[in-house]
Amino acid sequence: VLYGLGIRHVGSVNAQVLAEQFPTVQQLQQADEAAIASVHGIGTEIATAVHTWFQQPANQTLIRRLAEAGLQLHSTATTTAKTTALLGKTFVLTGTLPTLTRDQATDLIQQAGGKVTSSVSKKTSYIVVGDDAGSKLDKARSLGIPELTEADLLALVNDGGKGT
Predict the structure, then answer these.
(1) Are 118 and 41 in contact (CB under 8 A)?
(2) At what angle do helices 44-55 and 57-68 cross, to 10 degrees?
(3) Which of 48, 102, 84 is nearest to 164 (CA)?
(4) Which residues share a beta bridge with 131?
(5) DSSP, residue by residue, 78-92
(6) What are the helix (H) ranges across 22-56?
């Protein structure tokens, strides 16, 4: 639902990260920019966009009307990792992977206990690189972040994270 609100800079990955940190829309609505920006993977530009969006009276009315209509405005997501092979690891995907879609790769990482973010930072554990990788790869290399191919990722998940 958060992604569907059309908040500037909030794609599906950022929406998921925000929903994990702020399980109810009221919590996110009441959060200040600093609290939003403190969420891993969310920078100041996204935090400002989210905070500003929730401060607009028209958007507050929209949220109220959606709640009155019975739309679920709280997260029911729970950590349901099938394994803990990648527990505590943060991944960024870039480029086109040979056999997995982004959603499939994200699900694979999350099911193994890992986390996927959309931007590279010093907290990123690995960058998964496909064809036509761009600026994310450049930034990861400048920060010394280890690179994985799709095959490397699959091996990490299948060997229980021993390579991590």
Answers:
(1) yes
(2) 70
(3) 84
(4) 96
(5) ----S--TTTT-EEE
(6) 25-30, 33-37, 44-55
Asked if 17 and 106 count as a contact pair (C-beta separation under 8 A), the reply is no
Q: Read off the amino acid at residue 40.
A: H
Asked if residue 87 lies in contact with residue 125, where contact means CB atoms within 8 angstroms, the answer is: no
Please report which helix (H) or strand (E) contains residue 58, including its range.
helix 57-68
CA 144, CA 147: separation in Å to the nearest integer? 9
- CA–CA dist 158, 86 (Å, integer): 10
CA distance 90 to 151: 17
pLDDT in tens, the chain (164 residues): 888 899 998 888 788 888 888 888 889 999 999 999 888 778 899 999 999 999 999 999 999 999 899 888 887 655 444 556 788 899 999 999 999 888 889 888 888 888 899 899 999 999 999 999 989 999 999 999 999 999 999 998 887 655 54
Q: What is the value of pTM for the model shown?
A: 0.54
